[in-house]
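Allow me, if you will, to draw on your knowledge of protein folds for a short while. I have a record of one protein: its chain in single-letter code and its fold written as discrete structure tokens. Could you please explain, in whatever detail you think fit, how the structure tokens follow from the sequence? The record follows directly beneath this note:
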Amino acid sequence: MPKFIWSDYIQYRVQLRGFDISKIEEILRFSDERYFDTVTQRMVAVGKHNKLLIMIPYDQTKNESEDVIMPVTVHATSRQQIKFRLVSGRFLK
């Protein structure tokens, strides 16, 4: 099971945008929809937060005993935006 590191910034963004941090963690842990963002060089998890589609860029490292996931930010998105980023080559599956 990966270890999550929640920076002050991500906690602030989650609170500011009215998201539930436990749902964010659930998306990061279980989402099958993941992309590599070629611009930021980060992985991105996509999932539903209630009825809202959200995107969570994150850094992933590995220490001696476990994977470490550090979410960077969280924001609402749309299928159209994801599709455009796939077509343009920004997101890779």
About this structure: The longest helix spans residues 21-30. The helical segments are 8-16, 21-30, 79-88.
